[in-house]
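User: Modeling request: complex.
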Amino acid sequence: MSGSATLTLTALAGVPNVTDGDNLVAIILSALEASALTLQTGDVVVLAQKIVSKSEGRTVDLATIEPSDRARELAAVSDKDPRVVELILRESTEVLRSRPGAIIVAHRLGFVCANAGIDQSNVGAGGDDRVLLLPKDPDASSAAIRRELKRRTGADVAVLVIDSIGRAWRNGTIGTAIGLSGLPGLLDLRTRPDLFGRPLQTSELGLADELASAASLIMGQAAEGRPIVLARGVPYDRREGTMRELIRPKEMDLFR
Amino acid sequence: MSGSATLTLTALAGVPNVTDGDNLVAIILSALEASALTLQTGDVVVLAQKIVSKSEGRTVDLATIEPSDRARELAAVSDKDPRVVELILRESTEVLRSRPGAIIVAHRLGFVCANAGIDQSNVGAGGDDRVLLLPKDPDASSAAIRRELKRRTGADVAVLVIDSIGRAWRNGTIGTAIGLSGLPGLLDLRTRPDLFGRPLQTSELGLADELASAASLIMGQAAEGRPIVLARGVPYDRREGTMRELIRPKEMDLFR
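Assistant: Request completed. Predicted assembly structure:
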């Protein structure tokens, strides 16, 4: 038996539509102000991938993309735009499966996802010919934002970049960590005893993924657009961390 | 741009060690009181599988289990107690994979998980020879608890039963919905336009799984033991719901 514990997630008000080259730290700070919140050491700032990618100029005009033969073949199988398939292949190291509408790949960042995380929605006024790639290095993006938030506010916060990703076996996407800084990706429970002093069977907890799902729940989807969440009360040990902790090596994976 | 939105998850104080036949609704209500909280319509009460299973008497004494030949063979491959493997087989409809330490199955409830969710930790003072099965019908457990909470408090809340479940491709378990009542398992986004009026690509959100992960994050593990979470501010439409929404049919699954 123990005392209560509270986790509070606030999807911030006052976030404008982010475009290429916008200063995300300035946007975070003014959204905090619009929501009457001040950063505290130990908080986690959770960012939707989309605004990180946009601020880093990861929008691609499909008119500039020439699909390879392989992209054209895979486009026929998956019923997708060959230029989008070309980008999916460039962003991936391996195609695991494909079906109409989805190509499941190992992204160059290491994790498995559909369509290399390339997004055709909410890209901007350019219309259907613009798509958005994932950030080049979301761990590095998180670390840079974290440093700048520390410099400007004095608070030592963690930063987490998330995307909505599908899974094997279950319907529906869930918020999933694709980059982080200042918190663990994975919590190792193997050395902790259970209530009766026996070692726990379940050995590792996907801490950053659980937080990603929690933040996704309150971000809302589509037109609501609340891509910045402040999480307060997350039980974590402050350390550098990387999203690579969450990626199961291929040779250990029974389902690749 | 829109106003801020807040999701609050409180892991309740005052939850005793639950044993066979305990009245879980009485335990929830006294834990709420110990945490100075009152149920409100629209809240979600999230329960760790373990306390639901225990209250339903799902503890099994391994001394009563005679392993079949198949269980003995699989026990050799997976390096597990043949009696536990016998229970895993009884609780499952199909073995997908096995490796030392884990047998990945389709549980009779429909979802894929390791070791049929059978838990050897925190079962009680009986020692290593007692294990805990999942509830017989977690949707029905959730509905019964929901009805009784409504009767006793007047508040129309949703109830969610969660377990820590591993995934393909990623390290670490995450809180996952195994039973629910009064909220959707899945949120269909296919008809909603994005910020620029185009249909959203990502079509379905695993709402109950996101909430399960959020609650798991604050429940804490092992010795801390905070198995009841009150979630307030979850954006959901009240309807009956079932965890079956979240299970991808085998014939639609590229990874079975």
